Amino acid sequence: MTIEQYNFSGKKAIVRVDFNTPLDENGHITDDTRIRGALPTLKKILNDGGAIILMSHMGKPKGKVNAKYSLSQIVDAVSEALGVKVQFAPDCAKAQDQAAALKQGEVLMLENLRFYPEEEGKPVGIEKDDPKYDEAKKEMKQRQKEFAKTLASYADCYVNDAFGTAHRKHASTAVVADYFDNDNKMLGLLMEKEVEAVNNVLNNIKRPFTAIMGGSKVSTKIGIIENLMTKVDNLIICGGMTYTFMKAQGGKIGQSLCEDEQLGLALDILAKAKANGVNLVLCSDSVVADRFANDAETMVCPSNDIPDNMMGMDIGPDSRKKFAELIEEAKTILWNGPAGVFEFDNFAHGSNAIAHAIARATAKGAYSLIGGGDSVACINKLNLADQVSYISTGGGALLEAIEGKVLPGIAAIKGE
Ligand code: AMP
């Protein structure tokens, strides 16, 4: 079932949203992107004449009630965004009466699901090496099913619009779907957009396809790099990862970030790229610094010949130019991870050059997907968000999807 096909008139929908919004010390929302992201789905349900039961997690309360993570803090903001006074259920597992009383056009928000350990389904107070761990895990899985069944009992249909947690097999993201038949469970509109975005870079590729992988460590990106190896034409590798590749090939990297235990892996990646006919491009020159600080002394040098007392902090001017050219020729673009220590303005030039090149390519008709944390922050900082095709809302979930993994939250609905 798709949400567009479904008529919510007279139905109660339980909707898993990602309202894990950042709050300041006074409990005020500092970024409402996630609330705004869910609005199309919620408005579709209300416009059809349905009622909504909202469920989400916030923070990591680890299975215990903790006022700091109470979703009551965002009820007013959600009411304002939706234009409907949202009711609140202070115990998500005891909301039967409030759910039953809900009328068409009304919205009820459940308290933080993670106040119950059943949501995540991990046994509490027992270590993995305890002989009784397996038994405790089995018992918790059973309790998780009961918890999911309770949530399901509130509604006629289930909508999952929380891409940020789609890679988790939690009660509200996956298990709850077992209690609805195929005609009464569906992805939300935000989730559909995320799935389409991933599909555009993994299956529906317009060539040339250029992926830009940056960030700090190759070890955390290896799954993605391997999966992309059979898909991309150009693979640009930049950021802190660069220096593991340089050292693996015998280069001098000074004090640059390096994962010595991954040198073999770096050589494997280079060999695989060659075997697959992928144009793997590393940054040939770097902006290096004498300290990890914005006001450090800097110079530009070859990325494989860095003075002993210096460290690579950003891609150099030649690399900026070369990367921008490749990006501008591309028809499909994926960017994950900054090209340098972009948090310091003096080392953000590489990431800026990449972001602007992506915006120019997009204006010429390329499909561009930006995702996975820091590259999103970079695009937003440059006010280029509306000049790229899609910015993913899911950090870990997007990365796992691009690794080619099946996400439990999607599989639970689509049965894949
Ligand atoms: P990741 O979470 O792996 O995408 O890494 C993002 C982080 O990588 C950011 O905080 C950047 O500051 C950092 N980073 C990028 N380039 C470098 C570099 N050359 N040296 C050290 N850290 C870097």
What does this 3D model show about the protein?
It is a single chain. The chain has helices spanning 33-48, 75-82, 96-100, 117-120, 133-153, 189-202, 222-228, 242-248, 263-276, 317-329, 349-363, 374-381, 395-402, 408-414; strands at residues 12-16, 51-55, 87-89, 107-110, 157-160, 185-187, 209-213, 234-237, 279-282, 285-289, 298-302, 311-315, 332-336, 367-370, 390-391. The chain folds into two domains: 12-187, Phosphoglycerate kinase, N-terminal domain (Rossmann fold); 195-402, Rossmann fold. The longest helix is centred in the middle third of the chain and has 21 residues, at 133-153. The strands form three sheets. A six-stranded parallel β-sheet has the order 3-4-2-1-5-6, with helices on both faces. It has 416 residues and is an alpha/beta fold. It is elongated, with a radius of gyration of 23 Å. The protein is 35% helix and 15% strand. Helix 8 packs across helix 9 (263-276). The structure holds adenosine monophosphate. Adenosine monophosphate binds next to strand 12.
In short, what is this structure?
The protein has 416 residues and is of the alpha/beta class. It has 2 domains: 176 residues, Phosphoglycerate kinase, N-terminal domain (Rossmann fold); 208 residues, 3-Layer(aba) Sandwich (Rossmann fold).
The CATH topology of the largest domain comes to Rossmann fold
Q: What's the order of the H and E elements?
A: EHEHEHEHHEEHEHEHHEEEEHEHEHEHH
* Overall mean pLDDT: 96
Low-confidence stretches: none
Which CATH class of the largest domain is shown?
Answer: Alpha Beta
Mind summarizing the main beta sheet? 6 strands, parallel
